[in-house]
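dumping this here before i forget
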Amino acid sequence: MYEIIVSGGWLMIPILLCSVGAVAIIGERFWSLQTRKITPPNLVAQIWQWHKAGTIDDKHIEALTVSSPLGRILAAGLMNRNSPREIMKESLEDTGRQVAHELERYLNTLGTIAAASPLLGLLGTVFGMIQVFTAITVHGNNNPSYLAGGIAQALITTAAGLSVAIPALIFHRYFRGKIDALVLKMEEEALKMVDVMHAERVERKTKG
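structure:
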């Protein structure tokens, strides 16, 4: 393996750095974007129980804020639970945009790695071909050993760049889709809480 990396030339260094960065980001995103961490089940039901019992206070809201991204969004709505429906929804949407932006952390970097790695491989190919033609100019093409170094560099850097770029692109698309699904789920849960709480408020006013 070491001999292959050396044969690829100095451009293997940034390609290897890209591979390390991609693996680190993919591992971190798999850990951070677990569904149970982002949208814990039965969270809206728990809030509804607090609401029915009249126990929603600053301590509950603070605990909800730090519990999960969905909890942070719902806590923003609860802080405006006595406000009109539109104000409550606006606070949920503002916090939701911040949470969605945080969920996309490192994805731009992963996308850059996916785009840059094959270009680094292509640059290595160009340098390898330059080396080949230089060898032909100096030594002619009668001895293949003079050409082997440049050809090896061209092939190795191209393969290495693609080997990094392909999984990086796949996981970039995967995480994008997962984040979109999580954001949609959080929006549904937030609207469910707003509808339930305001429906009860309207019902109380009607009975009163």
